Amino acid sequence: MIIPEPFRLLTSLLAVAGFIGANAAYLVWVERKAAAWFQRRAGPTEVGWGGLLQPLADAIKLMSKQIIVPPGTDRLLFCLAPVLIMVPAAMCFAVLPFSAALVPRDINVSLLMVFAFGSLNVIAVMLAGWSSRNKYAIISAARVVSQNVAYEIPMLLVVITVLMVSRTMNLTEIVAKQAGGFWHWNVFNLAANPLMPVTFVIFFICMLAETNRAPFDMAEAESELVAGVFTEYAGMGFGVFFMAEYANIVAGCAMATILFLGGWHSPIGLWPGVWWFLLKMYFLIFTVIWVRWTFPRTQFYGLLNLSWKILIPLSLFTLVLTSGLLKIFGR
Amino acid sequence: MKAPFNEVISGFVSLLTGMGITLGQLFRPIVTVQYPHQTLTMPKRFRGHILLKKEPTTGKSTCVACDLCVKACPSDCILVEGEKKPGEKRKSVTLFELDYTKCSLCGACVEVCPVDALEYSRAYNLASTSKQEYKVMDLVKRLEDSKHP
Ligand code: SF4
Ligand code: SF4
Questions:
Q1: What φ, ψ does residue B118 adopt, rounded to 5°?
Q2: In a domain, B41, yes or no
Q3: Which domain range does residue B11 map to?
Q4: Pocket around ligand 2: residues whose beta carbon is below 6 Å from it?
Q5: Which value does ipTM take for this structure?
Q6: What is this structure's pTM?
Q7: Atom 4, ligand 1: residue with shortest CA distance
Q8: Are B21 and B64 part of one and the same domain?
Q9: Whose CA is nearest to atom 6 of ligand 2?
Q10: pLDDT per residue over A249-264, tens digit each?
Q11: Domain ranges for chain A
Q12: Which contacts of B141-146 are long-range, i.e. CB under 8 A and separated by 24 or more positions?
């Protein structure tokens, strides 16, 4: 079905905004429920059946709180930071292909665009920390910057590997090339590179670090730095950061699905469609939550060591290996 | 040369083992008590605030107003008054006030009582909007109001 232009823009906008809003609201619920079950508690049960209206209650609570801009902060940057973190996260959704036909804007550099906007995340977090005039916030901001710089490198190296294998920057085409059973997915594309599953794991770990999720949640680090860069934010200012975290997780897991897990393709060749995409994406999101409630926060040095000593050499090696194999077997 | 590789691989395996353990917990039953809807019954030896015991035959307290508990209390939070009623051999208690805001739940009063007139209550859901309710707890009145023996 082709929708004529201005309406297509409008529907895409509404659909993306609705998708992000619904996910941010209900992933909080899923996270709280899953956290509780991992720890053998019951989680939210009071508001609505099984706590299902809890996100609504949270939203009302956050919105009814006063937004306080502490004196001495850099007012403009302080207010700009939540916007700056939310907008790039939402922008990524404009080019994500949910299925062959279900993509808001099918542009041929969509891969580049997602990572370009994805890397703006760190600037917003840094601005939030910098403008807060709070020492905990600024320590946390400094940590986040070095963490994100360290993890951006292996992530992009891994993406270049995928790029070389699929020879296109168009996400729709990258998925289209993985058609026909799970053995064609990039993660199992052992002919191109026998280390493909390792690159997937590297991508996933970097994605956790880039979205500042536990065990890499240096941005918040509530046990050491009060609430990290979010310390001075009240009410919906904090709420927007919270929503952006979940929007980033969804975008990250969607990218992992597109680049490695064959997007909307079915693993067995049956019933291809958007449901496979959602199934894979939500499984990855569940894994993100699962990782968070399994591992404690890493020490900062351990975090940088992991990137510089293990992930970067490994991803460089897979890059060289892939290019060598492509040169020899030249496909 | 081999050591760093082994370290990475064994480290990764240990991460997966950890995730396996948490996944196992996910499907096991919930162990916490949903507090306002469910409450635990306190064990026999739980020490709440003190209460005057009810003598099953008379329905009254056996306290003889000897003031030993008043003297034993390290926090000075008991006030006892009694009188000798006509036709009775011993004094009986007319006023027994506990200042629960100061009580340290040490149990000295219960230990010292010669006629075993005090016991611990099993109440732990104590809350009030005024301090006065716990500042002066009239235990004689509570004994009279209490239904079960
Ligand atoms: S329990 Fe201890 S502190 Fe409390 S009233 Fe008895 S003697 Fe005093
Ligand atoms: S409660 Fe026991 S110790 Fe205290 S005044 Fe009465 S008889 Fe004496």
A1: -110, 150
A2: no
A3: 1-31
A4: B 63-69, 80, 93, 112-113, 115, 117-118
A5: 0.73
A6: 0.79
A7: B103
A8: no
A9: B63
A10: 999 998 898 888 887 8
A11: 71-329
A12: B142/B51, B142/B52, B143/B51, B143/B52, B143/B54, B143/B60, B143/B61, B146/B54
